Amino acid sequence: MKNLLNYQSSEYDCGPICLLNGIRYLFEREEIYPDIIKFIMLYCMDTYNEAGELCKHGTSAAAMNYMASWMNHFSEVRQFPIHCEFFSGESVSLTPQCRITDALKQGSIVVLRVFLEVAHYVLLTGIENDRILLFDPYYEEIDDPDLDKEYMCEEISFITDQPKKANRSVSIERLNGTGTDYYEMGESACREALIMSRRRMK
User: Fold this and answer.
1) pLDDT (tens digit, 0 to 9) for every residue of the chain, 202 residues total?
2) CATH code, 38
């Protein structure tokens, strides 16, 4: 049985929750090793904020890159059918021929760094024409009177009936944006993406 996708428990754990949601999306609950859950939570939220408080600056690119390597090693040692690829900088885009777009079309998922007031991770789970389906682990309610007005645009739509796949539909043009508006990836220097794929074992 596939699990529902989860929301973050604090302001800071979007990174590990997206990784765990990626595992939930790709695998049945009965297939998931507890080691994976333990080590994702152990190695993420590795940064300090300006006051020197651990975890309160989220998850670094170095941690995401390490998790990609760790999961690939885990796959080889435990014969767990996953493969990960980490990308950063100019290689992170959503053009028709790019690696991320191709991965989504083939059924893989992508942990992507975007902006949501601050840097934030979301999970891309599909592509439909000129829009991306994603699961944002930061819980919001569309009928909340305090919902940020930036959500209220044609480029961002809420999805309420796919709890195992997506809760947002965002235009590719918006995601490719070089600014810091909601769900834009920003300048090339700060872009990160981790592709997670279920693979066939030999």
Assistant:
1) 999 999 999 999 999 999 999 999 999 999 999 999 999 999 999 999 999 999 999 999 999 999 999 999 999 999 999 999 999 999 999 998 899 999 999 999 999 999 999 999 999 999 999 999 999 999 999 999 999 999 999 999 999 999 999 999 999 999 999 999 999 999 999 999 999 999 886 6
2) 3.90.70.10
126's tokens: 């599909």
Q: Please name every residue paired with 88 in a beta bridge, in sequence order, or none if there are none.
A: 192
- Owning domain of residue 121: 14-198
- 3-class DSSP assignment, residue 70: helix
* 6 located within any domain: no
Distance, CA of 104 to CA of 31 (rounded, Å): 22
- Asked if the structure places residue 41 within a domain, the reply is yes
User: What is the pTM assigned to this prediction?
Assistant: 0.96
* Residues linked to residue 124 through DSSP beta bridges, in sequence order: 110, 134
Q: Is 133 helix (H, G, I), strand (E, B) or coil?
A: strand
